[in-house]
C-alpha cells in the first residue's frame, strides 16, 4: 500500500464474515505531518469508526510500517484460521489526518466505495470485486434503495406532477374537468409518501455513520425537502376557496413552495449520483428531465396558441343575449332567429332543457330544415329514445312529422307537460336585440341543460371552441332587460364592473336517473346544508336536503319563486317573521304567498326592502349565498309585500328546495359545465349595479 503525501492514513483489513467494512480487522498506518510513521491494529464494528487502537479477532505477532521511496508499506505477522479455505475477503481505504493527527473520514465516492475484493493466500492472487461479480452487502443494498426511492419521488414524480397540473389549461379539461387536477394530487401525494420512506432510509444510514461529515449538504437538502413538502401538504388542507380574498396569497405560497421543492429535489438527486459515482443513472436522469422539459414547453406553447386564437373563433354578438321578463307569466324570454329565410322566435329560458325546441304545428317554413333520420349521428348525439314514421294519411306532413325520423321527449316547464318532439337541424342565429318584445307568442324553449350534447351552450362550445359555460343575469324589471352570457368571462356591465369577479362557487351534484327518458336529468343540483336568518340557524330536517335520499336542491328558470317543502317552508316563514321588527304588521296573505306584511311599515335601502338577511349554506361551512330584501320580499300591491317563497304542499318525490327566478334576479349566476360548478355573485346591489345596467340592448 502507498501514501504519496504527509498527513494521511491508510489501512488494509481482512473481513472474515462479509465483503464490506463492518467486521473488518484492520492494520492501520499513520503518516503524520512531521513525517513519522505509526502502525497498529483496529477492529471495525461501525461505519462511524475513528480507527481507534484495539486487538483483532485473530492473533497478531507484530505490525510495523515503512516509507520506501514515497510508498508506505505495512508489515504484519498474524495467525488466521482458514477454516478449510485459502481465500479471504479484504478491504482497503485511505484518508486524511485531522489537526490532532487522528484519522479523519475517507472519501465516499469513486474508488473509495470500490475498495474491496478477495485474496488467495495459497496463490497470492487478488480479485477486485464489483457489483457484477459479488453479492452486495446489506448497507450497499440500503444505499441503492435510498437512491432509487428518492430519485423516483423527489426527482421524477414531483416534476411530473407539476406538468400534469399544467394540463388543466388544455381543451381536454373541458371534457374531463377534474382529471388533471386529481392526477396532479395523486402524483404529488405518492411522491411525498415515497419521499418520506426514502428520507427514513437516509436517516437510518446517517445514524450508522454519524461521524461521517462529507454528506452534510446532501443531508441538509433532504431534511429541507421533507419540511417543505410537509408544509405543502398541510397548506393544501387549509386551501381557501377560490372566491376567498386570501386565495391569491395562498396561490403565491403554493407556487413558491412547490417550485422550491422541485428545484431542491433535482439538485439533491445530482448530489446522490455524484456520491455513488453512477454515471449511467445520472445520464438517464438528465434524459428524463430533458424529455419532461420538452413536453412542458410544448404544452405551454399550445396553451398560449389556444388562448391567442380563442377569441377569434367566437362570432360577434354570441357572448351576450338579451333576456326579457314577461309581466304576466313571469317567464324569462330570449329571442333567436331560425330557419331560411330567418324568422325571429321568442323562446323561454329553460335551465334543465336538453335542447332548443320550437312549435312546428303552424307556419313552420324553412328550406334548410332537415329531420334527423333513424340511427344517424344526430340521433345518437341527442340520445333519442324513439324512432319511426310520422304520417298524415300516407304522406309526410313536413317539419315535426317525417318518415324514418327520431324523436325525444321534451318538456314545457311552464305548464309542466311532456310531449314528443322530432329531432332536426336548421339554421339558427343569436344576436342582441332591442328588448321591445313581450312574453306573448312564445314558440318554445332554449335548453341550457348540462347532461345533453345538444343544449345551446354545449353546441356553441363545440362549434366555436369556447368554454362550456354560461351566466344568467335576470332583471327584476319588466321594462328593462337582463342578459345571458355564453362563453368565457369577464361579464362586464355598464359601469365596467366585472360581475364574475367575486363569485362564490359550489359543485354541481351528480344528477339522478330519469327512467322515463332513460338518461340522467339535466337539472342543476347543488348541496344546501343549512338556512339561517339574521345569523340564526333554521331547524330543518337534514334528510330533506340530501339528494341521495330523494330530496335535495335544484335551480330552475321554470318557477318564478323558490319552492320549499312544507316542513322547510313552515320553519323558514316562522323564523323570518320572528326576525322582522316588531312594528312591522302582518296582513292577510295574497296567493300564492302565505306570509305578508304592511308595506308602509318596511323601509328601503340600497339592498331593497329592509328585511332579515337569509343565508343559504352551501357545500362548505363558510360558503353561503346571501339573499337580501330585494330577493326575499315581493311587492304584490301598493299596500302589501310578501315573503317571496312558495310552499310545495305535495312532495311524493323530487327536490325539497327548488330555487326560482325571483331569488336570482339582479344576481349573476354562472353555470360552468366544464368544471361542474355554479357561481353566485350575491346581489349586485352590493356593488351598486344591477342586471339591467348593460349596453347589450
From TrEMBL:
What name is this protein filed under? Basic 7S globulin 2 small subunit
Organism, by scientific name, is Solanum tuberosum (Potato)
Keyword Transcription included in the entry's annotation: no
Which SUPFAM superfamilies does the record match to this protein?
Answer: Acid proteases
Question: Into which family does the record put it?
Answer: Belongs to the peptidase A1 family.
Question: Could you tell me which residue ranges the DOMON domain spans?
Answer: 1-95
Coiled-coil regions listed in the entry = none
Q: Which residues form the Cytochrome b561 domain?
A: 102-308
| TM region positions | 144-163, 183-205, 217-236, 248-268, 280-299
In terms of InterPro entries, this protein maps to:
AIR12_DOMON, Cyt_b561/ferric_Rdtase_TM, DOMON_domain, PEPTIDASE_A1, Peptidase_aspartic_dom_sf, TAXi_C, TAXi_N
What's one Pfam family the UniProt record gives for this protein?
DUF568
